[in-house]
Amino acid sequence: MAVKFKDYYEVLGVDRDASQDDIKKAYRKRARKYHPDVNKEAAAEEMFKEAAEAYEVLGDPENRKKYDRLGANWKAGEEFTPPPGWENVHFEFHRDPQFTGGVPFEERGGFSDFFETLFEFGDGRSGGRGSGPRWAAAGQDHEAQVSIPLEEAFSGTKKTISLQTAERGPEGRVQRRTKTYNVTIPPGTTHNSRIRMAGQGGAGQGGAPSGDLYLHVRILPHSRYTLHGRNLSVELPIAPWEAVLGAKVPVQTMDGSATVSIPPGTQDGRRLRLKGKGIPGRGAGPPGDLTAKVAVWIPENLTDADRTLWENLKTLSTFNPREP
Fold it and tell me: What does pTM read for this prediction?
C-alpha cells in the first residue's frame, strides 16, 4: 500500500542529528502551542496530533534507529511504500509521549495512514496484524505561583495553599476543582526559584504516573530590605558627627543585629558590606551578603544649644564642599 511519507524530523522542526533532549524539547514546545484545549485554531488539533505521532517514533532511541533505516532521501508528501523486509521490523510503543492534557491519542482521531502502514497499528484500516501501541499517558505537569514574605524565604516555612486545577472527569469533560497542597519552603529560597512537588500534577492515564507540580516562588517586597539574588541591601542612617568622626553603629539583620564600623570621613551613600548576612545558601552554595548604604541624616528640630553648636562650627570650620 502506497501512502504519503511523513518526515517526523520536519514535523518537529529538528535536524536528523538532533539529540534526544532536543527532540523532547521540540515536541513539548509544539504540544503546548497546538494543544486543542488551549489553541482553538482550526488546524491546531491536527498539528498537535502530528507532533505527538512524530514524538512517539523519534522519542524512543530504538524506534528512531529503525525509522532512520528508511533513509534520509524521502520527502514529506511523496508516495511511499515500505521497503522489502520491513514487515520483519518490530517497533515497541509502550511509553508515554508526554501528551499534555492526558487524552489518549486514539481518542483524538488516531494515527496517520503512514504510521499505521509502517508500524502496523491494527485498527482495521491498514490491515495491520498488531494490536497497536499500548498507550499510557503520563499526567500533565502543572505550574503555579506562590508569593511569600522575605522572612519565610530566609528561614523557611511550611504553607498550605489552594490552587484551581482543570481535570478530565470520567465522561471526558474538563472539570475545575480546588486542590489543597502542603508546601515546604526551604530556608534560603530565592526569588523566581522553582519548587517541584513530584506527582502532584495532572493524573496519568492507563496506569502511567501523575505529572509534577512546579511552584514558581515570588518573594514580596520588604519595607526595610531590598533583595538582589541572595544579597540584601538596607539603608543605614547615621548622624553628621558619626560620619565625620567615625563610629560603631548597630544595623538590623534578618536574624538579629550586627555592629558596623563607620570610618571617619564617611560620605553619604557609601556602602558597607556585611559578609554572609544575606539570604542563606542552599546545599554547598555560600550565603549572600548584606550591604548597608549610609544615609547621613541632618537634625531638623534644633534646640537653642544645638543651634549655638552649629553656629560655632560654621564660624570655626575651614571646610568648603564647593572648593575644587
Answer: 0.56
